[in-house]
Amino acid sequence: MSFFYFFHRPSTILRKVFIYRIFTDLKKMTTIAAELRPIVVSGPSGSGKSTLLKRLFQDYPDKFGFSVSHTTRSPRPNEIDNVHYHFVTREKFKELIEKNYFLEYTEFSNNLYGTSISAVKKVAEQGKICILDIELEGVKLVKKTDLNARFIFISPPSIEVLEKRLRDRGTESEDAIQARLDAAKKELAYAAEKGSHDLIVVNDILDVAYEQFQNFINNNNNNDG
């Protein structure tokens, strides 16, 4: 049966099988990755996580590697295929799902996003700590694997600030903005749950947020937790 089938069916039994299949497919990879403790970074669109990650990679080019995700959405201005994302058609994405290609995937605003198993493995084999920038549902799925990852949530100071940032981009329709705000409320609610993340960074002042972000990664990534 396909990966897509297990992901979308509500049966508890099927979900257990789905997770079991992730364990099976990742068994070899996670042995490698556990030595470097992957870091899952999440947060609403407009929270500034991309800015923080860009700065982290500039400051530590030999220490961290980015897991490049697949998506069916169109590239934004200045986004480069196979650098920021692997941009693919919906048909190609579904084909990859059928081949159990993804560690996790989700759909948002009629666009599919997914992290491939090979993308995470590639970073680990380079001797770097893999950074995964993924959506809420992906975070929940990765938590159920044995990747031994750390989880960081980048939060806006408020929903009002987030909305202003999204509107200031000038790149999205009103419907898209409202969809992102609705998604942000769900992400913030999950982040408020005890134990959901190892660190929550409120990105109000960029330099302060970055200091907290990179200090946690550098000082805690080799600890158990």
In short:
The protein has 225 residues and is α/β, with parallel strands linked by helices. It has helices spanning 3-8, 12-33, 49-59, 90-98, 117-125, 136-143, 159-169, 174-191, 206-220, and strands spanning 39-42, 64-66, 70-71, 86-87, 102-108, 111-116, 129-133, 150-155, 199-202.
Number of domains: 1
SSE succession: HHEHEEEHEEHEHEHHEH
Let me know the CATH homologous superfamily. P-loop containing nucleotide triphosphate hydrolases
Query: Order of strands side by side in the largest beta sheet?
Result: 2-7-1-8-9
CATH architecture call? 3-Layer(aba) Sandwich
Give the overall form.
Answer: globular
**What do we call the CATH topology?**
Rossmann fold
Radius of gyration from the alpha-carbon trace, in angstroms:
17 Å
* Distance between the ends: 35 Å
Total number of strands: 9
Number of helices: 9
- Return residue spans where pLDDT drops below 50 for at least 5 consecutive residues: 1-24
Keywords: ATP-binding, Kinase, Nucleotide-binding, Transferase
EC number: 2.7.4.8
Family: Belongs to the guanylate kinase family.
InterPro entries: GK/Ca_channel_bsu, Guanylate_kin-like_dom, Guanylate_kinase, P-loop_NTPase
Supply database-style keywords.
225 residues, disordered N terminus, 9 helices, 9 strands, globular, alpha/beta, 17% strand, five-stranded parallel beta sheet, Rossmann fold, four-stranded mixed beta sheet
Structure characterization notes:
This protein is an alpha/beta fold and 225 residues long. It has a single domain, classed as Rossmann fold (3-Layer(aba) Sandwich), CATH 3.40.50.300. It has nine helices and nine strands. It has helices at residues 3-8, 12-33, 49-59, 90-98, 117-125, 136-143, 159-169, 174-191, 206-220, and strands at residues 39-42, 64-66, 70-71, 86-87, 102-108, 111-116, 129-133, 150-155, 199-202. The strands form two sheets. Strands 2-7-1-8-9 form a five-stranded parallel β-sheet. Strands 4-3-6-5 form a four-stranded mixed β-sheet. It is globular, with a radius of gyration of 17 Å. This is Guanylate kinase. Keywords: ATP-binding, Kinase, Nucleotide-binding, Transferase. One of its GO terms (cellular component) is cytosol.
